[in-house]
Specification:
2 copies of one chain form a homodimer.
Chain A lengths: L10 E4 L8 H10 L4 E5 H7 L1 H11 L2 E9 L6 H21 L3 E5 L8 H21 L3 E4 L16 H8 L7 E6 H4 L5 H7 L4 E6 L23 H10 L6 E3 L4 H4 L3 H15 L1
Parallel strand pairs in A: 1-2, 1-8, 2-3, 3-4, 4-5, 5-6, 6-7, 7-8
Helix pairs in contact in A: 1-3, 4-5
Amino acid sequence: MVRNGPSLESLSLNQITTENWNLKEAVAGCVKAEISWISLWRHKIQEVGLAESKRIVADSGLQVSSLCRGGMFPASTAEQRQKNLDDNFRAIEEAAELGTDVLVLVCGAAPDRDIDTSRKWVEEGIEQLVPFAESYGVKLGIEPLHPMYAADRSVVVTLDQANTMAEKYNDNQVGVVVDVFHVWWDPDLYNQIVRATGRILGFHVSDWAVPITDTFKARSMMGDGVIEIRRIRKAVEQAGYNGPIEVEIMNQAIWDKPGNDVLSLIKDRYVKHV
Amino acid sequence: MVRNGPSLESLSLNQITTENWNLKEAVAGCVKAEISWISLWRHKIQEVGLAESKRIVADSGLQVSSLCRGGMFPASTAEQRQKNLDDNFRAIEEAAELGTDVLVLVCGAAPDRDIDTSRKWVEEGIEQLVPFAESYGVKLGIEPLHPMYAADRSVVVTLDQANTMAEKYNDNQVGVVVDVFHVWWDPDLYNQIVRATGRILGFHVSDWAVPITDTFKARSMMGDGVIEIRRIRKAVEQAGYNGPIEVEIMNQAIWDKPGNDVLSLIKDRYVKHV
């Protein structure tokens, strides 16, 4: 069944949205706002350590929707690519320890002018991770990024690409993550969402305001931009996804606001626009 | 035959690259630099008027590779869409008057949250232009823009889309314009260039430096970024395109340099990187 408005029970705070909060503050903020899911970032976990992070989350009763992020496979040297891969093994262990079965992959860019080779490195990297991830019960969620990040963050830029890569594996091993900010422009979006049925491991929301003035911190609060968020959410649900919906917004103005106000605004906009 | 380096005889200055020059200065700059093609922008033509523009270009002996730009079809009201269409009729007349057979179309964005409807308006707009353009001997070149412009400049964001739209018409009516900055990230790029054989009406070069700090004035001089320009140029030539190659760079730092120095640098980078 496809809902009209989403249930607030599905709302997850992606921790980057409250970048000025540490892990403890973000967890407390969610509890106070009665948000029952959180997506954790590794740089926030490192600040307090894995064991303490695990304790903070467990004590709160929050569920962890995903760990951000693995990936970043390409590098100019084989040595660096191996280091990057090793870091992904650690990320899988962390995801399992923190109680989530989804590791989000931001696949990485081309270190020089050869985008095809970088795409090959991404595929090889995932291939090496899969058995290890499966042994931990962790699924790899390939997140296609907006093409404006092709040069510095991800050579995987369409849901078509992500689907093709994921389909080489079982759906309990590798899937895709659909982030409205990254995919809304794609003329083939709704076909690719149908194609991803059974493999959607995450759904992220934010908005694209006009004009964007920064490329990394480019996202806006839902309702402040042009993305047909509700239409995409319904398509994702029709493709069988009924998991948590992460609000993931890199935006300096939002970061600069008091976190509790941001969570309050998120809940309001979530009901109205997601 | 596919050349290794391109011939300087193919080099065309897209006038936006020397935005601080008026038409007369740009034409004189090209003559001095022995560049034999120029692509004209309508806001520069308006400054001096069409008749005077025509005279300046004719006296110089320069050839006009294209007129920038038609398009911008979508609008919230039928009245405004008709106005936009009327402006396209004028652009066709200007192109013919200035002696070029290519009008570049930047198709326009969605005025609100409905990207599918805007795409339909673009198709309807082109359909209405085709007979008029043909009667003037002017071809419509659909230029897919980078997806980062989907919200404010073009809902046509892939060469696949542009090809599909162009194929509804004869190849002397509608074709596509390939700009490396807009298409380099596309996993399907080389297939789509092959598909465009016989319909490529223009080829534009610039580069994508990392990081980009502005979205509109985001382009860099060839060689300063990550785009495989030469590979794309060879693919376009293998698809039968042997027309002028426009250097089209919106970049404040380049605009702020003396135009003659910019043309000199363009020639150097063109031989090395295109």
